[in-house]
């Protein structure tokens, strides 16, 4: 543990447990701390898993228990990454989502469904942090990010997303101030470092595909996109009053959701994590993001309509059940909205997907990727990324997205 983390001690953890469990008899006996994510799994905060042994009084007897919690910390050490996390306000968006908005959304869907883990404690400064229940302790885990999700996982994820969107509509109708999640990933108010990341990512992709014979003829067109990539994405997902708008997860890919499995290894439940990019706009944002980052090749090519039907069915049923005044879109309207924002999916595939398809042992964090002045992203060399792009780039061109 680093020197800066001297505050993370038994009495701090005891305070959190007493508060979150509403029990002042709790006494922490022992704790151990380790990083909760590997390099490349989590770009916007430092996460620790704390295993705690504690005792409490129950009916005059002292009983011992174990619990695991997650501490998410705004990075303390100065770096490029720290600078743009602080300036963009991402961490505070997550605090607001977990301690207010999602708390209310979950209340609407309980006890049958849950969208997220519980927030146990929030601290706004010195250091800024968020403490959450450990979903792994409840039996949730990550799916394999390199192969993409099969149909069973994808259906569960889209059902969860539909409930997330529907509950957000209900909450925003009751409290219009909940619509104030206005930034997301692409927003002109963000610090220039964030824009630079996307510009560099597109240039690096263009340089890489210049070496792939199957698609090298597109390299120049893609390089030209780099100057206005940020603007294209921002325009694609602009809020339109005529459409359904929801609070989007904003970073909806398989690294940011966990699944629970039955004894045969079949996925039976899904839950979301990481809420720094939440943004109120068209649900097409989350759908494009998910489709372009998280599906296996087979599901992406053959099951798009199955997934959209599943999403719309659950969205409509849940909005009705929650007595929303807003009408859900028809399938025609949903597809039209997806078509209008299709360039967003392409930009996500060009810039975010390589970060996710990078082999674990080659993963880099944002400082490694950006600090040398040249953009180093080993994900661009991954075989699975190359295979996907060789199929998709000609399609993007056919759709007129490469300019």
Short note summarizing the structure:
The chain has 403 residues and is of the alpha+beta class. Helix content is 44%, strand content 15%. This is CHK kinase-like domain-containing protein.
The biggest beta sheet, please?
5 strands, antiparallel
Shape: globular
Oligomer: single chain
User: Uncertain segments of ≥5 residues (pLDDT<50)?
Assistant: none
Please give the CATH class of the domain at 142-398: Alpha Beta
- List how many beta strands DSSP finds: 9
The CATH architecture of the domain at 142-398 = Alpha-Beta Complex
What letter string, H or E per element, gives the SSE order? HEEEHHEEHHHHEEEEHHHHHHHH
| Radius of gyration, CA atoms, in whole angstroms | 22 Å
User: What's the pLDDT, averaged over the residues?
Assistant: 90
CATH topology of the domain at 142-398: Aminoglycoside 3'-phosphotransferase, Chain: A, domain 2
Number of helices: 15
Protein name: CHK kinase-like domain-containing protein
Domain CHK kinase-like: 130-321
InterPro entries: CHK_kinase-like (IPR015897), EcKL (IPR004119), Kinase-like_dom_sf (IPR011009)
Could you characterize what this model shows?
- By secondary structure, the protein is an alpha+beta fold.
- The strands form three sheets. The chain has a five-stranded antiparallel sheet, with helices on both faces.
- The protein has a domain at 142-398: Alpha-Beta Complex (Aminoglycoside 3'-phosphotransferase, Chain: A, domain 2), CATH 3.90.1200.
- It has helices spanning 10-21, 80-88, 90-109, 151-174, 192-209, 219-225, 229-236, 284-293, 297-302, 304-321, 331-340, 342-351, 353-356, 366-370, 383-398; strands spanning 27-35, 46-58, 61-73, 119-123, 129-133, 246-248, 257-261, 267-272, 279-281.
- The model has no long low-confidence stretch (mean pLDDT 90).
- A hairpin with a 5-residue loop joins strand 4 and strand 5 (129-133).
- It has 15 helices and nine strands.
- It is globular.
- Helix 3 (90-109) crosses helix 4, helix 7 packs across helix 12 (342-351) and helix 8 crosses helix 12.
- Pfam families: EcKL (PF02958).
- InterPro entries: CHK_kinase-like, EcKL, Kinase-like_dom_sf.
- This is CHK kinase-like domain-containing protein.
